[in-house]
């Protein structure tokens, strides 16, 4: 019997053992007419804007799985460091894992340097990792934060390119949100105006794009303070029922009534103490 | 004698063991140093010591499996660490001169030899500290952690492979 011997230690990380098998299975399934299960995506609207004192990030809260809403209230604004937050669009697992890995790496880096991490560092780490995997990690991110050099906002695409801009949008609803930004953005806005602008941009994405929906989350980052407003605005309330389907008492007439008392006597009584150790 | 690879060639650093009287290893052990590298241009064919396909140890192979990788990222990921090191050493050589990568690779060689038996997981602490990967987390730490794998390699075969006797 020929066995495949393991001659060396496998280093860990991604394993491509099942790729050929998966491709064969997919071909077989497609021949039968079915489709393989789709990954959960966050067809999304995310956006960010730099205002006078800092950065405002906004996101909707719908996660889709094909044509079905998988999560009506998912959180798309991920923590990276106390002064940096990141919105994620694309495959939900990819954005989740990527932001967690970068958050851990930034924490280790900050412990090593002894300083508050910079947004440019997080950007560089993210773009190098995404480029390494050539776009197979489907994470489109809006990274924003305030560090010692001021407020910064980056958009990072799944293949690893980044843009540093005063206002960015990503996701399937990005065009709707960008339309609002292009109309009403101006540099050095006040906080309330910036929050209203981001809220309106996300609302445009929610109401005009099928992949985005539910509530609007905001994250306002300033020097030394972060306001995570979840939900900032419940734009889509689930409908309230206007009528009641309960029948009134007395709808069904009672014909006969028979009462049979069950006489039970106590046979045995025992007390079992709870194990609270 | 230590040979450094020139930029365009695919050879590797190796120490000529014939010059070390203290190490009584036969020169067959040299093969154990060279065989672990994956040539960048293609997948390694499952060749055994006589050049033919090694069914007993590597299993059946098909031409289709050997020609193309099963995923576009497979080759790039297999060689990633190696390529990164190569690029970094080249940059270091261009900036600081030949002595810098030479000294560093000597330390790498020394640290790589601090291992447990081939079939046991080694912590690679010195190697990690040299590389700087002791304060980074990547997918290789989270996914498929070899310390948590459910299967262990056969001790005899792994030791033989390490010594180049296999």
Automatic annotation (TrEMBL), chain A:
Transmembrane residue ranges: none
Pfam families: Pr_beta_C, Proteasome
GO terms (BP aspect): proteolysis involved in protein catabolic process
CDD domains reported in the protein's UniProt record: proteasome_beta_type_7 (cd03763)
Keyword set, alphabetical order: Cytoplasm, Hydrolase, Nucleus, Protease, Proteasome, Threonine protease
Domain of life: Eukaryota
GO CC term (a single one): nucleus
PANTHER family per the UniProt record, alphabetical: METALLOPROTEASE TLDD (PTHR32194), PROTEASOME SUBUNIT BETA TYPE-7 (PTHR32194:SF4)
Name of the molecule in the record: Proteasome subunit beta
Protein source organism: Cirrhinus molitorella (mud carp)
From TrEMBL, chain B:
Coiled-coil positions: none
Keyword check for Chaperone: yes
InterPro entries referenced in this protein's UniProt entry, alphabetically: Ump1
Pfam families, alphabetized: UMP1 (PF05348)
GO terms classed as biological process: proteasome assembly
UniProt similarity note: Belongs to the POMP/UMP1 family.
Listed name of the protein: Proteasome maturation protein
Organism name: Cirrhinus molitorella
């Amino acid at each position: 019997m020929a066995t495949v011997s393991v001659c060396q230690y496998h280093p860990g990380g991604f394993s491509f053992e099942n790729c050929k098998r998966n491709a064969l299975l997919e071909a077989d399934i497609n021949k039968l007419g079915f489709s393989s299960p789709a990954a959960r995506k966050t067809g999304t609207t995310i956006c960010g804007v730099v205002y006078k004192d800092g950065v405002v990030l906004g996101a909707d809260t719908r996660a889709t799985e094909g044509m079905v809403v998988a999560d009506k209230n998912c959180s798309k604004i991920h923590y990276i460091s106390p002064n940096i937050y990141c919105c994620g669009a694309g495959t939900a697992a990819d954005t989740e894992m990527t932001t967690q890995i970068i958050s851990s790496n930034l924490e280790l880096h900050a412990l090593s340097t002894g300083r508050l991490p910079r947004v440019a560092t997080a950007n560089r780490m993210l773009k190098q990792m995404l480029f390494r995997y050539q776009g197979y990690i489907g994470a489109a991110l809006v990274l924003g934060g305030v560090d010692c050099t001021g407020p910064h906002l980056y958009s990072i695409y799944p293949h690893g390119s980044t843009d540093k801009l005063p206002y960015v949008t990503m996701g399937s609803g990005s065009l709707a949100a960008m339309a609002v930004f292009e109309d009403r953005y101006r540099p050095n806005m006040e906080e309330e105006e910036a929050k209203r602008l981001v809220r309106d941009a996300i609302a445009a994405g929610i109401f005009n794009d099928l992949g985005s929906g539910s509530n609007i989350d905001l994250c306002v980052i300033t020097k030394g303070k972060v306001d995570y407003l979840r939900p900032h605005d419940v734009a889509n309330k689930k409908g309230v029922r206007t009528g009641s389907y309960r029948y009134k008492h007395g709808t069904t007439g009672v014909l006969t009534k028979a009462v049979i008392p069950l006489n039970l006597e106590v046979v045995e009584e025992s007390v079992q103490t709870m194990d609270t150790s | 004698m230590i040979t450094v690879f020139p930029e365009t060639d695919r050879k590797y650093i190796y120490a000529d063991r014939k010059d070390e009287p203290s190490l009584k290893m036969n020169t067959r052990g040299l093969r154990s140093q060279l065989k672990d590298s994956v040539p960048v241009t293609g997948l390694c064919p499952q060749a055994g010591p006589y050049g033919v396909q090694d069914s007993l140890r590597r299993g059946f192979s098909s031409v289709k499996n050997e020609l193309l990788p099963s995923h576009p990222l497979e080759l790039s990921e297999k060689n990633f660490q190696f390529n990164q090191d190569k690029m970094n050493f080249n940059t270091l050589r261009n900036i600081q001169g030949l002595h810098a990568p030479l000294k560093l690779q000597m330390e790498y060689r020394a640290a790589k030899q601090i291992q447990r038996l081939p079939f046991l997981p080694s912590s690679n602490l010195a190697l990690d500290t040299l590389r700087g990967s002791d304060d980074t987390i990547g997918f290789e730490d989270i996914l498929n952690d070899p310390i948590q794998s459910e299967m262990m390699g056969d001790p005899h075969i792994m030791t033989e492979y390490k010594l180049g006797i296999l």
